[in-house]
Amino acid sequence: MKIIVFGATGNTGKRVLAQGIQMGHEMTAFVRNAEKLYDQLGEHSEKHVKVIVDDMMDPVSVREALANQDAAIIAAGHAGQGEEFVRIVDNIVSQCEMEPSFSGRVWVMGGAGLLDIPYTDWIGNNLPGFPPEYKNHNRNFERLQRTDLDWTMMCPGTMTDSREHSDSAHLHVTTEILPVPMQETIKDFSEAEVAGHLFSRFQELNVAYDDVVMCMLDHLELEGSFKRKRVGLAYQSNIAVS
Fold it and tell me: Closest Cα to residue 163, out of 237, 226, 70, 113?
Protein backbone atom coordinates (compact mmCIF):
# COMPACT_ATOMS: atom_id res chain seq x y z
CA MET A 1 0.00 0.00 0.00
CA LYS A 2 0.96 3.63 -0.36
CA ILE A 3 1.10 5.17 3.12
CA ILE A 4 1.90 8.75 4.07
CA VAL A 5 3.07 9.56 7.59
CA PHE A 6 2.68 13.03 9.09
CA GLY A 7 5.07 13.62 11.99
CA ALA A 8 7.47 10.99 10.66
CA THR A 9 10.39 11.99 12.90
CA GLY A 10 8.48 11.57 16.18
CA ASN A 11 8.56 8.52 18.42
CA THR A 12 5.50 7.01 16.76
CA GLY A 13 6.03 8.23 13.21
CA LYS A 14 9.59 6.96 12.86
CA ARG A 15 8.46 3.50 13.93
CA VAL A 16 5.59 3.59 11.42
CA LEU A 17 8.14 4.26 8.68
CA ALA A 18 10.51 1.51 9.82
CA GLN A 19 7.80 -1.15 10.18
CA GLY A 20 6.07 -0.04 6.98
CA ILE A 21 9.30 -0.48 5.03
CA GLN A 22 9.78 -3.96 6.49
CA MET A 23 6.24 -4.89 5.46
CA GLY A 24 6.87 -3.78 1.89
CA HIS A 25 4.65 -0.71 1.81
CA GLU A 26 5.46 2.38 -0.24
CA MET A 27 6.14 4.92 2.48
CA THR A 28 6.03 8.71 2.24
CA ALA A 29 7.27 10.91 5.08
CA PHE A 30 5.90 14.44 5.44
CA VAL A 31 8.34 16.32 7.68
CA ARG A 32 9.68 19.73 8.57
CA ASN A 33 13.26 18.57 9.10
CA ALA A 34 14.75 16.28 6.46
CA GLU A 35 18.14 16.00 8.16
CA LYS A 36 16.57 14.60 11.32
CA LEU A 37 14.64 12.07 9.26
CA TYR A 38 17.71 10.91 7.33
CA ASP A 39 19.66 10.52 10.57
CA GLN A 40 16.89 8.25 11.88
CA LEU A 41 16.42 6.25 8.69
CA GLY A 42 20.04 5.56 7.83
CA GLU A 43 21.34 5.17 4.28
CA HIS A 44 19.61 1.86 3.56
CA SER A 45 16.08 2.89 4.53
CA GLU A 46 16.48 6.33 2.97
CA LYS A 47 16.14 4.71 -0.47
CA HIS A 48 12.75 3.22 0.45
CA VAL A 49 11.01 6.38 1.65
CA LYS A 50 9.72 9.32 -0.36
CA VAL A 51 10.40 12.47 1.64
CA ILE A 52 8.33 15.65 1.45
CA VAL A 53 9.70 18.60 3.39
CA ASP A 54 7.01 21.19 3.98
CA ASP A 55 4.64 22.81 6.46
CA MET A 56 1.75 20.68 7.74
CA MET A 57 -0.27 23.87 8.11
CA ASP A 58 -0.05 24.59 4.37
CA PRO A 59 -3.25 23.20 2.81
CA VAL A 60 -1.88 23.05 -0.73
CA SER A 61 1.27 21.13 0.23
CA VAL A 62 -0.64 18.65 2.37
CA ARG A 63 -3.29 18.05 -0.28
CA GLU A 64 -0.68 17.47 -2.99
CA ALA A 65 1.16 15.04 -0.71
CA LEU A 66 -2.03 13.02 -0.21
CA ALA A 67 -2.58 12.44 -3.93
CA ASN A 68 -2.86 8.72 -4.77
CA GLN A 69 -2.12 7.61 -1.19
CA ASP A 70 -3.98 4.61 0.21
CA ALA A 71 -3.72 5.62 3.86
CA ALA A 72 -2.57 8.51 6.04
CA ILE A 73 -1.21 8.14 9.55
CA ILE A 74 -1.32 11.38 11.53
CA ALA A 75 1.34 11.14 14.22
CA ALA A 76 2.15 14.84 14.24
CA GLY A 77 2.02 17.14 17.24
CA HIS A 78 0.88 16.49 20.79
CA ALA A 79 -1.91 17.64 23.08
CA GLY A 80 0.38 20.04 24.95
CA GLN A 81 0.67 22.17 21.81
CA GLY A 82 -2.90 23.30 22.34
CA GLU A 83 -4.54 25.12 19.47
CA GLU A 84 -1.67 24.38 17.09
CA PHE A 85 -2.16 20.63 17.58
CA VAL A 86 -5.88 20.90 16.85
CA ARG A 87 -5.22 23.00 13.74
CA ILE A 88 -2.63 20.53 12.41
CA VAL A 89 -5.05 17.62 12.66
CA ASP A 90 -7.94 19.65 11.26
CA ASN A 91 -5.90 20.76 8.25
CA ILE A 92 -4.69 17.25 7.39
CA VAL A 93 -8.18 15.77 7.82
CA SER A 94 -9.65 18.56 5.69
CA GLN A 95 -7.18 17.90 2.88
CA CYS A 96 -7.88 14.16 3.10
CA GLU A 97 -11.54 15.05 2.51
CA MET A 98 -10.75 17.30 -0.45
CA GLU A 99 -8.18 15.22 -2.36
CA PRO A 100 -10.22 12.98 -4.71
CA SER A 101 -7.40 10.48 -5.35
CA PHE A 102 -6.85 9.78 -1.65
CA SER A 103 -8.49 6.53 -0.56
CA GLY A 104 -9.93 7.93 2.67
CA ARG A 105 -8.25 5.62 5.25
CA VAL A 106 -6.89 7.65 8.17
CA TRP A 107 -5.33 6.82 11.53
CA VAL A 108 -5.12 9.61 14.10
CA MET A 109 -3.29 9.44 17.44
CA GLY A 110 -5.29 10.13 20.58
CA GLY A 111 -4.96 8.84 24.14
CA ALA A 112 -6.53 6.39 26.58
CA GLY A 113 -8.44 9.24 28.22
CA LEU A 114 -10.71 9.29 25.15
CA LEU A 115 -12.00 5.78 25.75
CA ASP A 116 -15.30 5.02 27.47
CA ILE A 117 -15.00 3.83 31.06
CA PRO A 118 -17.00 0.58 31.42
CA TYR A 119 -20.30 0.79 33.34
CA THR A 120 -20.21 4.62 33.30
CA ASP A 121 -21.08 7.47 30.97
CA TRP A 122 -17.64 9.06 31.31
CA ILE A 123 -14.32 9.23 29.57
CA GLY A 124 -11.13 9.94 31.48
CA ASN A 125 -10.38 13.27 29.81
CA ASN A 126 -13.58 14.76 31.23
CA LEU A 127 -12.92 13.71 34.83
CA PRO A 128 -11.50 15.99 37.54
CA GLY A 129 -7.72 15.90 37.85
CA PHE A 130 -6.99 14.98 34.24
CA PRO A 131 -4.66 17.49 32.52
CA PRO A 132 -6.82 20.05 30.69
CA GLU A 133 -4.64 19.84 27.57
CA TYR A 134 -5.89 16.26 27.04
CA LYS A 135 -9.18 17.77 25.93
CA ASN A 136 -7.43 18.73 22.71
CA HIS A 137 -7.75 15.03 21.86
CA ASN A 138 -11.50 15.41 22.49
CA ARG A 139 -11.59 18.19 19.92
CA ASN A 140 -9.77 16.08 17.34
CA PHE A 141 -12.19 13.23 18.01
CA GLU A 142 -15.13 15.58 17.49
CA ARG A 143 -13.56 16.69 14.20
CA LEU A 144 -13.33 13.09 13.01
CA GLN A 145 -16.96 12.46 13.86
CA ARG A 146 -17.89 15.22 11.39
CA THR A 147 -16.12 13.62 8.42
CA ASP A 148 -17.14 10.82 6.06
CA LEU A 149 -13.55 9.53 5.93
CA ASP A 150 -12.75 5.96 6.95
CA TRP A 151 -10.92 6.92 10.15
CA THR A 152 -9.72 5.22 13.32
CA MET A 153 -8.36 6.90 16.44
CA MET A 154 -5.56 5.08 18.26
CA CYS A 155 -5.94 5.64 22.02
CA PRO A 156 -2.99 4.13 23.92
CA GLY A 157 -1.87 4.85 27.44
CA THR A 158 1.76 5.75 28.07
CA MET A 159 3.90 4.40 25.23
CA THR A 160 7.26 2.84 26.06
CA ASP A 161 10.37 1.94 24.06
CA SER A 162 9.98 -1.75 24.81
CA ARG A 163 7.51 -4.18 26.30
CA GLU A 164 7.37 -4.07 30.08
CA HIS A 165 5.54 -7.40 30.24
CA SER A 166 6.72 -10.97 29.85
CA ASP A 167 6.29 -12.98 26.69
CA SER A 168 3.34 -14.71 28.38
CA ALA A 169 1.32 -11.52 27.93
CA HIS A 170 -0.67 -10.86 24.77
CA LEU A 171 -1.93 -7.61 23.34
CA HIS A 172 -5.59 -7.06 24.17
CA VAL A 173 -7.32 -4.75 21.70
CA THR A 174 -10.66 -3.05 22.35
CA THR A 175 -12.86 -0.63 20.49
CA GLU A 176 -14.49 2.33 22.22
CA ILE A 177 -13.82 1.19 25.82
CA LEU A 178 -10.78 1.00 28.08
CA PRO A 179 -8.88 -2.27 27.53
CA VAL A 180 -8.51 -3.11 31.23
CA PRO A 181 -11.12 -4.95 33.33
CA MET A 182 -13.35 -2.91 35.62
CA GLN A 183 -15.68 -3.97 38.41
CA GLU A 184 -19.32 -3.12 37.77
CA THR A 185 -19.41 -1.38 41.16
CA ILE A 186 -17.54 1.52 39.55
CA LYS A 187 -20.93 2.74 38.32
CA ASP A 188 -21.69 3.79 41.90
CA PHE A 189 -18.51 5.88 42.25
CA SER A 190 -18.46 9.65 42.11
CA GLU A 191 -16.53 11.33 39.28
CA ALA A 192 -13.65 12.05 41.65
CA GLU A 193 -13.59 8.44 42.84
CA VAL A 194 -13.54 7.13 39.28
CA ALA A 195 -10.69 9.50 38.45
CA GLY A 196 -8.71 8.32 41.47
CA HIS A 197 -9.31 4.70 40.52
CA LEU A 198 -8.03 5.31 37.00
CA PHE A 199 -4.95 7.18 38.24
CA SER A 200 -4.08 4.18 40.42
CA ARG A 201 -4.23 1.85 37.41
CA PHE A 202 -2.52 3.89 34.72
CA GLN A 203 0.47 1.55 34.60
CA GLU A 204 -1.80 -1.20 33.28
CA LEU A 205 -2.23 0.88 30.13
CA ASN A 206 1.50 1.12 29.33
CA VAL A 207 2.12 -0.28 25.86
CA ALA A 208 5.16 -0.43 23.57
CA TYR A 209 5.37 1.95 20.61
CA ASP A 210 6.06 -0.98 18.28
CA ASP A 211 2.86 -2.75 19.30
CA VAL A 212 0.83 0.43 18.76
CA VAL A 213 2.35 0.87 15.31
CA MET A 214 1.86 -2.76 14.32
CA CYS A 215 -1.81 -2.55 15.24
CA MET A 216 -2.25 0.44 12.93
CA LEU A 217 -0.32 -1.11 10.05
CA ASP A 218 -2.30 -4.35 10.41
CA HIS A 219 -5.59 -2.45 9.97
CA LEU A 220 -5.25 -0.28 6.90
CA GLU A 221 -8.04 -1.79 4.82
CA LEU A 222 -11.08 0.28 3.94
CA GLU A 223 -14.35 -0.68 5.61
CA GLY A 224 -12.47 -2.70 8.24
CA SER A 225 -13.55 -3.61 11.75
CA PHE A 226 -12.00 -0.43 13.20
CA LYS A 227 -13.78 2.00 10.88
CA ARG A 228 -14.87 5.15 12.76
CA LYS A 229 -13.84 3.71 16.12
CA ARG A 230 -11.50 4.48 19.01
CA VAL A 231 -9.01 1.69 19.70
CA GLY A 232 -7.47 0.82 23.07
CA LEU A 233 -4.52 -1.47 23.82
CA ALA A 234 -3.26 -3.24 26.95
CA TYR A 235 -1.36 -6.40 27.79
CA GLN A 236 -3.10 -9.36 29.37
CA SER A 237 -1.52 -12.49 30.76
CA ASN A 238 -1.92 -15.70 28.81
CA ILE A 239 -1.65 -17.65 32.03
CA ALA A 240 -5.05 -18.64 33.39
CA VAL A 241 -5.70 -17.73 37.01
CA SER A 242 -7.50 -20.43 38.99
Answer: 237
